[in-house]
Amino acid sequence: MIAGLQIALSQPMRINDVVIVEGEWGRVEEISSSFVVIKIWDERRLIVPLQWFIEHPFQNWTRSSTQIMGTVFLWVDFSVPLEALRRELEKTCQSATQWDGRVCSLIVTDTSERAMQVRALVSPRDSGRNWDLRCLVHERLISFLQREHPQALPWLRAEQIDGGLHAGNQTTPLENP
After folding, report:
1. b/e for 132-171, b at 16 or more Cβ within 10 A?
2. Same-domain status, 7 and 75
3. Is 74 found in the same domain as 130?
4. Is residue 82 within 8 Å of 158, Cβ to Cβ?
5. Residues 24-73: pLDDT tens digits?
6. Can you tell me the distance from the alpha carbon of 151 to that of 157, in angstroms, rounded to the nearest whole number?
7. Does one domain contain both 36 and 93?
8. In a domain, 177, yes or no
9. pLDDT, tens digit (0-9, with 9 covering 90-100), for 4-15
10. pLDDT tens-digit profile of 78-124?
11. Looking at residue 116, which CATH number applies to its domain?
């Protein structure tokens, strides 16, 4: 009962808010005096006791606004033409009905000895369209690389030494020399 009163007074969530609870994405469908019903993206219902919300952190993507950023990470080879990939991202965003026109950018966020990571940052029309826009960007950028720059997809560099294949610290015999 005290948890219900705390939720009612502080309003950390409202009906139709998009929340992440225990790793599940969904919309608040009902708030009762003892539990919250969250409609999960795949139509299941997650029933969570009110006390849980008092004792555990959770994400509310729509608490003050439905604006949210979507991120897409790709590992690519160092040979990727970044400007061409940026143009493809812009083309994808401009043709996407899920995009709100605010943010569409691509930057390198990490590197390793084998590849670099790029991050596409996009702004969907609302939090409900975030997943769809992110999936679209993933698919279009990968298709673009496969079609136009297949050498820019991650691959393992190796050199042949004494009849074996050497990659990093491992040596593997070649099956078909």
Report:
1. ebbebbeebbeebbeeebeebbeeeeeeeeeeebeeeeee
2. no
3. yes
4. no
5. 989 999 988 888 999 998 899 999 998 888 788 888 877 766 677 899 99
6. 12
7. no
8. no
9. 555 555 567 888
10. 999 999 999 999 999 999 999 999 999 999 999 999 899 999 999 99
11. 3.30.70.100
Residue 83 lies in a domain: yes
> How many beta carbons lie within 10 A of that of residue 86, not counting itself?
16
CATH code: domain of residue 41: 2.30.30.60
Q: Which DSSP string do the residues of 105-135 spell out, in sequence order?
A: EEEEEEE-SS-EEEEEEEEESSGGGHHHHHH
Whether pTM > 0.90 for this model: the answer is no
* 43 and 83 co-located in one domain: no
Query: Per the domain annotation, does 159 fall within a domain?
Result: no
Supply 125's token pair.
């029309």
What does the block give as tokens for 95? Answer: 């043709």
Q: Is 44 helix (H, G, I), strand (E, B) or coil?
A: coil
C-alpha atoms less than 13 angstroms from C-alpha of 109 in its C-beta half-sphere: 12
Number of structural domains (the chain) is 2
Q: Cα(37)–Cα(26) distance, rounded to whole angstroms?
A: 10
Helices 82-95 and 130-148 pack at an angle, to 10 degrees, of: 140
Domain that holds residue 13: 2-60
At residue 4, the pLDDT reads 52
